[in-house]
Amino acid sequence: MAKVIRDHFKVESSVCVIHLPSGTKISTYPYKDKKDVGDLKIRNLHDNDHADEYDPDEVRAMALELLKELAEDNND
């Protein structure tokens, strides 16, 4: 499996990121406290030949980390 890195993600909003290589959109709800971020909505934007090259659990884990950082940035 290919390694998932931060540079693979595009920040669409403070509650949504897209994993560009796999075309996976990961979003959450706006939370006041970053520790509450956890419920993720995941959907594929389109069929992508590279989607199966990435471990979905790693994509979710990296997305969760980014979304927690975004939540923290928005509460400063």
Find the count of extended strands (DSSP E, 2+ residues). Answer: 4
| Shape by Cα distribution | elongated
- Total count of helical runs of at least 4 residues: 1
Low-confidence stretches: none
Helix share bin: 25-40%
Strand content: 15-25%
Terminal Cα span: 37 Å
Oligomerization status of the protein chains: single chain
Q: Biggest β-sheet: count, sense, barrel?
A: 4 strands, antiparallel
Q: What is Rg?
A: 12 Å
What class, by secondary structure content? alpha+beta
Give the mean pLDDT. Answer: 85
The domain count comes to: 1
H-E order: EEEEH
Strands of the biggest beta sheet: in what spatial order? 1-2-3-4
Plain-language structure description:
The structure is a single chain. A hairpin with a 4-residue loop joins strand 2 (16-19) and strand 3 (24-27). Helix content is 25%, strand content 22%. It has a 4-stranded antiparallel beta sheet, with helices on one face. The chain has one domain (6-74). The relative contact order is 0.28. The chain is an alpha+beta fold and 76 residues long.
